[in-house]
TrEMBL record:
Pfam families: NAD_binding_9
Domain of life, per lineage: Bacteria
Protein name: FAD/NAD(P)-binding protein
Family annotation (InterPro entries): Auxin_biosynth/cation_transpt (IPR050982), FAD/NAD-bd_sf (IPR036188), HpyO/CreE_NAD-binding (IPR038732)
Residues covered by the FAD-dependent urate hydroxylase HpyO/Asp monooxygenase CreE-like FAD/NAD(P)-binding domain: 48-190
Keywords, alphabetical: Oxidoreductase
Gene3D superfamilies registered for this protein in UniProt: FAD/NAD(P)-binding domain
């Protein structure tokens, strides 16, 4: 006898079903963190999270599930503009395979699949080659609503500094400066969280600012209608920007890169397995360093669909073995020197990734020179030296910073769940495929730090615990004593 599958929930029903699932699984756990004791400020967050992209949200959900009750999430962006998804990400679909997700904590009604099916049907999900970018963002917004996560938008964190046994955050919100105190801080600040998007100095020194853009920034493509565009780089963003420029009416795009041919293999996929992503931080320093160097040299190819879409655009020229050797403005255009002779453009797009410069980050103003770096903790063989990797923080196995000197022990209350962690924890902690495995390490570390900092309050916490389990009638004590000592009739 064949049975038809149960009907799919509507979007409204899915929200209720997801919340019912959470309740069935004991969400949230009872509060467990002892209050701060002694004199001191009263308004102190248990965890302050900087960044409400996918990492900040999922971390907040997990910490809330585990019984933390005062989690504050700050994001400089407006609602809907968190992360890259609706701002500078220009691909149609995610690069991650649609099955490699982990934000749902094994609860089907929290999954992006169920979310998508509730809106578009089961067949639409089955037919999807990859998750559409804007749908992923809409799913994250829904996810934050299901968990009722308190995001403070338009709140740019300008500094993170010690304040006794606490951490103080300086926040700019609507032009005003606020101060927030927290017991622990998670930096979920994304792919540029260890510096800034990199514009080579031979470009920024030679050209006025309106003649170039970084691929991961806002670009006014309308202004580039009819323009001859030179793109430097061959990563996925280079192709995404080429497609957008040509579709918006650019005359031509020359996509230039140093390599003689595009990489064909994506070695990142080989790392995306449970064992490596779960235990990465237990690997020897030498292994982690070598893997990080390997990925510096082995780029990944653009996704096949992106590549094919780009090649189908009239006006695209791929130029392998074409590094830019120098450039200048000439006769109103930009002349770029290459080994094959000069190329002439009207505008440049730099798909040149990220520069590591902790001091350039506002939120690291106080912290950047107080944390241990790989260059101080690990000495590679001279032929394996790498200045960029050496300037990344050497994090503990739970993403916490380690202090450079004992005076700055407070930095261990700050956790770098962002690109700073790529040598210590591998390149996939904050990506969609990494959360399932990496997030538990972060959560354990934050909770451990909170517990150890609150150790002195544990006995008073136990003594004050007053949740009755045996509910008895008011006269029960009297009746009980009556039983224990039966009255003797005179
Ligand atoms: C074009 C593009 C495509 C990508 N595609 C994929 C993909 O398909 N799959 C995948 O797994 N990954 C992809 N990535 C990587 C992607 O960036 C991450 O997986 C994802 O965005 C990481 O989430 P996150 O929350 O860690 O960081 P983000 O999503 O970058 O969020 C960081 C947040 O921190 C906020 N913030 C930063 N500094 C401050 C501050 N000082 N004060 C307040 N707020 C601050 C930002 O406003 C931002 O909202 C892509 C990246 C790019 C650039």
């Amino acid at each position: 006898m064949s049975t038809s599958p149960p009907p799919l929930p509507t979007p409204e029903h899915l929200t209720r079903a997801a919340r019912d699932d959470l309740a069935a699984l004991g969400f949230p756990a009872p509060a467990w963190l002892p209050a701060l004791t002694g004199p001191g400020p009263a308004d102190v967050a248990e965890v302050a999270i900087v960044g409400a992209g996918q990492s900040g949200l999922i971390a907040a959900a997990a910490l809330k599930w585990d019984g933390l009750t005062d989690i504050r999430i700050f994001d400089g962006a407006a609602p809907g503009a968190e992360g890259p998804w609706t701002t500078f990400a220009r691909m149609q679909t995610l690069r991650s395979p649609k099955t490699q997700v982990g934000s749902e904590f094994n609860v089907p009604n929290l999954s992006v699949r169920r979310w998508y099916e509730s809106r578009h049907g089961a067949q639409a999900w089955a037919d999807l080659p990859a998750i559409p970018r804007t749908e992923w963002k809409a799913y994250l917004d829904w996810y934050a609503a299901v968990f009722d996560l308190p995001v403070r938008h338009g709140s740019e964190v300008l500094d993170v500094a010690p304040e006794g046994a606490l951490v103080a955050l300086t926040v700019r919100r609507e032009g005003r400066i606020e101060r927030h105190l927290a017991r622990t801080v998670v930096l979920a600040t994304g792919l540029d969280g260890a510096g800034a998007w990199r514009v080579p100095t031979f470009v920024s020194d030679a050209l006025p600012r309106d003649r170039y853009d970084h691929s991961n920034g806002p670009i006014d493509f309308e202004r580039l209608r009819g323009a001859r565009i030179g793109i430097l780089g061959h990563g996925a963003s280079a192709f995404d920007n080429a497609i957008t420029a040509l579709r918006t009416g650019a005359a031509s795009v020359d996509l230039c890169f140093r390599r003689p041919r595009l990489p064909r293999i994506n070695p990142h996929r080989a790392l995306e397995n449970a064992a490596l992503m779960t235990h990465y931080s237990d690997l020897a320093d030498e292994t982690r360093w070598r893997i990080a160097r390997f990925f510096r040299r082995q780029d990944q190819p653009p996704p096949l669909r992106t590549f094919e879409t780009a090649l189908a655009q009239p006006g695209l020229r791929l130029r392998p073995a074409t590094p830019w050797l120098g450039l200048r403005e000439r006769d109103g255009a930009i002349e770029v020197d290459t080994p094959a002779g000069p190329l002439v453009f009207d505008h440049l797009i730099l798909a040149t990734g990220m520069a590591v410069d902790l001091a350039a980050r506002p939120e690291l103003a106080t912290l950047h020179d107080k944390v241990a770096l790989w260059g101080e903790r690990f000495r590679p063989a001279p032929e394996e030296a790498d200045e960029r990797l050496a300037s990344l923080p050497y994090l503990d196995r739970h993403f916490a910073f380690l202090p450079r000197t004992a005076d700055d022990a407070w930095v261990a209350r700050v956790f770098a769940f962002n690109v700073s962690s790529i040598v210590s924890h591998g390149p996939h902690s904050t990506s969609i495929s990494g959360h399932r495995h990496a997030l538990p390490r972060l959560v354990r570390g934050v909770e451990r730090r909170l517990l150890l900092d609150a150790e002195g309050g544990l006995l008073p916490f136990l003594a004050d615990y007053a949740v009755p389990e045996l509910h008895v009638a008011d006269d029960f004590e009297a009746r009980l004593s009556g039983c224990a000592a039966p009255q003797v009739q005179a």
